[in-house]
Amino acid sequence: MRRADVDAFAAWARHADPLFNHYNLPDLTPATADELWAFLSGTPAERRAYAGVLNGQVVATLVVRDMDAATSAGELGIMLDPAYLGQGLGRRILGAFVTVLANEGFRRLHLEVAGYNRRAIAAYLACGFTACDEYWADPEPGIDIEALLDGPAADTVSENVRLEPDGRYRARTIRMERRLNQ
Questions:
Q1: Which residues in the chain come in under a pLDDT of 70?
Q2: Which one of 36, 37, 165, 178 has the minimum C-beta count within 10 Å?
Q3: 3.40.630.30, 3.40.190.10, 3.60.15.10, 3.40.50.2000: which CATH number matches 3-179?
C-alpha cells in the first residue's frame, strides 16, 4: 500500500445497512489521512498494509498484523469498498492475498469476525479458513445493539448477542484460521 492509496478511501461508498455502519470510514482530511497512513505503514515487522486494486482503483485494504516470526503467523484484516459487496470480489481479493502471504513465508493466518457478519464468514470459508472457536465480547465500537435489535436486522443480530446480568450486551465473535502450505 502507498500513501496515495489512503486518499482513495475518501471515494468509497458508505454502508447503508445499519448493521455495518461502524465499518464506514470517517471523512478523511489531509491530516487524518496522514495519521491513517502512519498507522498502516508504521512498523512492518508488526503490521503490513496492502491495497486491493481493480482496474486501477483501490477497492480493498488488507492488513496483516500481530505477526509472529516464530510461528510464521499473523492476524488478517480486510475492508472492501461497500460499492463492491455481493460481487464475489472480496473472495477473489482475499484468495490472492492469502497467496501473496504464503509466498512471503506465512504458514498460518487467523482472524476474528462478528457472528452476525454472514457475508464475511462465507467469504472466509470459501477461501479455506475454518472456524476454530468463538467467544462473547464487547460489541465493536460504534455499534448500537439496542437499535439493531429494534430494526430490520433484528433476526440476524438477536442470535449473535446476549444481554449480560450487568445490563451490557456481548456479541458472538468467531475465531477462524487458515494454514498455508508451500
A1: 182
A2: 165
A3: 3.40.630.30
